[in-house]
């Protein structure tokens, strides 16, 4: 049936950038043979990225040495580069926590809003005073001259088998007096005076350094997006240097401008608790839309430190492990990539308490959902409206994990899970029991984890797609019995 489907591509609007025009990558979709609706199609890179499920967003740069959480909202704040002095910097130690957590990729903040670059950028530019200036707000201007954090991090990630990428803020640069991608019209004494075109040239030159010198990148972050004047050049640069990378904030919320077909969207909250149905499709900063022509999986970024603190904070409390497990279930378990913050301290190391909490989370994930953890499963992409698991003897379970094969798009729009529960009240010890509804929902996508209200003992489980726009293809169905943690632990 799938081979007979009609594949259609639509053409998106062209975006002008500086003096040149380029077409934004067009969404790829096909038409449902059942109801004529749009089914967005993924790229192979997007599907591979969803398979990674969980990553880390590493916040370590000059803002680590501030009492506040970065230069956000403080345009005049340009911390002295001599503050950046990590005497024990060791990115292999970072990767040990990343691996222990179960994360499969990590994205390093290479330049945040202060403007400080953690690599020795060699970019030069022309000022409004007709002088050539070096970008002299880098790690080469700090006490650790000669160091290159992206280089160290990339080598550590490759050695650990973890995908790696970079975050680079294009819209704010306090060092260059830039807010919302525009150079401020007034300058204080001593501030660098540049034109907007010059700023865009600096952005492209620094992205070229990052995307050329540090290997094949898994994810690239554009926090706050990018400007219309930058879009065409960034798109071309991506296609030339890192076409396989998945791009966070690739599209605007209308889908009229996208940097790449490998788009990833923001879920719209930094709590890690979106609490909604999450679709693999859509460009808005929320749960998405099943009818969108854009396949753009959601990414849920959140922090280990309480209070949504991204950079390391002095005596900043950590969120309890029970809350982090809830975050996992509301993100990975709801078809959203989880990107958890990693915040090295001012010495350049992951604090022991942080490392222990990351490992606690990873230990739970491995024990509950790792290889060999399922007490019953059906796999290997079954094309069917329903999947049944029958057990040789009454088996206790407390959750179910559903995975949809999205190669030809996300097509399931609703599902129900029924079980023959032999220890239910009133069953009187018989195995001849009716099916009972134990969970239901709308979006499955890459992964859906439904937790039951209490453990149950069953002889049979039936999963049924109750609404779909093409023949459902189940990638995997499995049931588990996991240890629970006391509230607040």
Automatic annotation (TrEMBL):
The keyword Signal applies. GO terms for biological process: fucose metabolic process; glycoside catabolic process. Residues 1-19 form the signal peptide. Its EC number is 3.2.1.51. It is an enzyme of class 3 (hydrolase). This is alpha-L-fucosidase. One of its GO terms (molecular function) is alpha-L-fucosidase activity. It comes from the Eukaryota. The keyword Signal applies. The lineage of its organism: Eukaryota, Fungi, Dikarya, Basidiomycota, Agaricomycotina. Keywords: Glycosidase, Hydrolase, Signal. Gene3D superfamilies: Galactose-binding domain-like (2.60.120.260), Glycosidases (3.20.20.80). Residues 83-366 form the Glycoside hydrolase family 29 N-terminal domain. Pfam families: Alpha_L_fucos (PF01120). Belongs to the glycosyl hydrolase 29 family.
